[in-house]
Design goal:
The protein is mainly alpha-helical and 326 residues long. The protein has a domain at 8-39. Helices cover 27% and strands 0% of the residues. It is globular, with a radius of gyration of 20 Å. It binds a DNA duplex (10 and 10 nucleotides) through residues 110-113, 134-136, 149-151, 153-158, 160, 190-191, 194. It is found in: Nucleus.
Length: 326
Amino acid sequence: MREEEEANWFARWEEQLPSPEELMPLSQTLITPDLALAFDIPTVRSNPNPNPSLHHHHPAPSLHPPPPPPSSQPPPDFDSPDHLTTASSGGGAGGGGAGEEPARTLKRPRLVWTPQLHKRFVDAVAHLGIKNAVPKTIMQLMSVDGLTRENVASHLQKYRLYLKRMQGLSSSGGGAGGGAGGPISAADAATDQLFASSSVPHHFLGRGPGPEPYMPFVPVAALQHHQQITAAMQQQHQQQQYYQQRHMGHFGSPTGGGEGYDHGFLARTMPQPGMHRMVGPVAVGLVPPPPPSAPSAASYVEDLESGSRRGGGERRMLTLFPTGED
DNA sequence: GATCCAATAT
DNA sequence: CATATTGGAT
């Protein structure tokens, strides 16, 4: 019964995990020093990112915004491509960038909730239970560096609306896609793309207060590290995407086949075949405080997927959703 | 004071 | 439309 369901859930979960190959392909290569410096993330989220023994490539974009002490220069981050409009800073400039003052007055670019991020979000909420799923907690569980409570709060707000909407809708189609392929698939309005694509934990709907159903435990793998996701990572891509979206209708995706865009970055590490792919919560030194009646497992952790799936024909935004649900 | 939440602004 | 920001309430 319920256990079975959960078991399935788990199974599916694993299936969704990205394969080692998809793991960290690009990523930091695009991070510009500017960007790195630009991120002045005040939050005290830990990010001891031990950085896996990556190849020569530099440590992950752990854009740890170390409070730039006055006497500090941008780390010699190897040469990186410029661009990435971080803003217009200065005026002009162009060229080079120049002013290096870390500008505390920098504003971070809008966070873009990619399916990957959203998934983390949903999983976190699911594991926390509606009760404990408040921005702060969610944020902590997500362990995404750079993510702020406000970011989560905002998204949560929308997410709740989505759930609510879904509650009232059970089978009648209102109009949108008309077809109901399932209880919730009806919602394919452009609005829900993100949400619709992600699996909504059943207990969410129609569920009020009450003890949480308990999610499957997650053995806290004391495994090594997995790359910590940083909002910055997302942001990089986000920026590009956002930019392109705004300025170009679609991406230059070769119709028909040319993929040409698979960022499967944001990966999780630990390809150990045959072993469960659970990773420990990144924040090893900062495990979220056990909420009053928190779900047993403090670390649920989950995966990230590569967002490259264009089925052939669909002209949705690029990082639409991959999860090939059943 | 912190944080949640809903509303509102960009 | 998706996020950010603000304001009121807890």
